Fold each of these.
Amino acid sequence: MSIPLLIAITFFAGFFIESIIGFGGGLIAYSILGFFMDIKHMILAGLYIGTCSSIYIFITDHKAFSKKLFLGALPICLFGTMLGVLIFSTLSSQIMLTMLGALSIILSAKIVFFDDVKFPRIFRNILLLIGGISHGLFGIGGPFVVNALKDEFKNKSELRTTMAVFFVTLNIVRFFQLSIQNEIHASLFLDIWWVIFPVFIAIYYGFKAHVKISEKIFKKLIGAMTLFSGIVFLLK
């Protein structure tokens, strides 16, 4: 199987899930692609596909976007993202992956067993910073940002759409910063330009599933995806 076709299949599966719960597209794709591709090429492919996909998610349900939550959390996430991109170009990512994996598993346990417990606001801001760093490094800061903000969203649709705007904004910053750091390779994007079309189909059907699931099941899916992210981080 060719690498572009494998990228299409894995991101199709990943963004079907992301269209349902608001994050997880990159996690699912990376968990498979990591066995076949260089990690940096894989992350750059995700930058293109993830940005286009998040724009489409926003378009499908733009009225659910929360400008207040977005602007309130953006400065911390933005700082973390810029720091993560610097780490991407200068340091080994293995220690960071292990730390992110451990924290994701702890977060998933909190969701499953202590979802009603409210942590101090400083903990929320720390998660936003970690989410930004993780997004700058790997393009998958969703588990941390979602868990930092999930109790502040009015409903599951507001979470899904607002997270899409987060991803687009942070990815634009990543693109320009990676370009300055000479990490962007045009040939990779030319090979996979068409992948976004099957991914759009996955997002369309994922949205249909999203509107049908209950808020209770939605929260359980967030916990399951957070646990999955921790396992993926630890195994990389």
Amino acid sequence: MIIETSLNLWIGCVMHKAELFKGFLEFESNSDIKNTSELILSGLLYSQEDKIREDFKATLSALCLGFKAQSESQSPIEFILPLMSHNFDKISEYPCKQYFALFNELIDYHFKS
């Protein structure tokens, strides 16, 4: 419930103020999750909880499909789709239903737009 609420709050802020996404991309930490890529993969692929993977999938889908990037900034789909493509070989090691569904959704959206 905490993760779902946090993701909903985060996406609301990012969709309202697009420049926050740039700050999200620049996230770095000394903890177990060292950067934005690891944060996304931790929630979408590495998590053992189906609900957490579903929440990340729904959030990332809404972000990629509904975000209006500023001309100089990278859009979410331009960041997330290559990240997922690069880590696609890991799906055999983890529960991957949500990862695969999001990947297919983003591929379809990318080629239709």
Amino acid sequence: MPKMTAARPSHKGWWFDQINNRIVAVYNGTEIFDFDGNDFAIAVATALTGGLQVVSGTLNVDGIADFALDVKFNSTITAGADGVGADGEQLTSGGAAAECDWAAAACLREFKKLLGQRTDEAEVLAQLAATPVYDFKYKTREESAERVISTGDHETVYTGIMADDAPWATHYKGRILNPVNTFGHTVLAIKALLARVEQLESRLAAV
């Protein structure tokens, strides 16, 4: 391995940084990632597995890591300052250059800032009854000029509402179905229906 104090602009591959005592992976003179004593104790690359095995310590990758085969995690996945997720949480992306975080539609009261109890069951029932319901399939990437947000299943026929007709049933700037609101509105509508049934039963009993 050549010993150099700096990578040449045209260099592609590995070089040894004598000043910082580290091994650096370089592409066109730009550092992709490095190995040093603080990162891990022993790293073994084997031709049998075709991969890199970190025996102990931490592997830091400063750049893009492209994996051609499966990636298996035998320990904990953390999301930076957001720490470790719990059962039922999903690792979500905040978009380009944003750190991933853990998210879930939590149900415990302790996680919420209550703003008041809803008592407009009749209005919500009318709102639900006026919302159109469609059969649809999600578009593929090739069928849309914009980035497609979907379940990833483009063959299943789904039955549901459109955000244009029911903004109350969405979140994330009106682009994602809000299961919390959807269920909450459904419960309110059921309460309104129950009140109507009880009124009818009371009238019939009085006849």
Amino acid sequence: MFYRRNWIAVIVVILGLVMFVPVAQAERQDFEGIICSAVTHSVVQASPGEIYIASADAKAIFQSTHQNKLFDNNTSHQVYVLKGAGGKWSWNGFFKRMAPDGDFIIWEFYGDSQSGISTSNAIYGTGKWKGIKGEAKGKRITAGTPIVQGTDQFCEKYVGWIELPK
């Protein structure tokens, strides 16, 4: 019986100490903002009313609307493929979002005209963004008439989150 009480006491002490061991947890941050892009299309095939296939190259800037100003004044370079058929559009590609200090995140994204939503997932980061995880949803809020054939200019509202390892 004496041994049993000793074991119980030892286990209670160990469990008590384990409760105070810091556990590495990710730091989650929310963000939202407006990203405005200028896009140039390289058309593979354009058959009006039938099919449109193109690659796209875009340059953009992000303006934060969140109180934490995460990603404010970040610039980005996007490359993606665009398909239009039967009045429906879809796209997928990658973009590099760069902070003013030069650290950047690579995001993979996809979307379609039926939902009107672009979904982005963080897949790589450098510097302060190393080990990043995250997701964002974007929806077009305005678009202008293209000023030059084969281009697009538009703005999207983005809302998302990131997690950084501690």
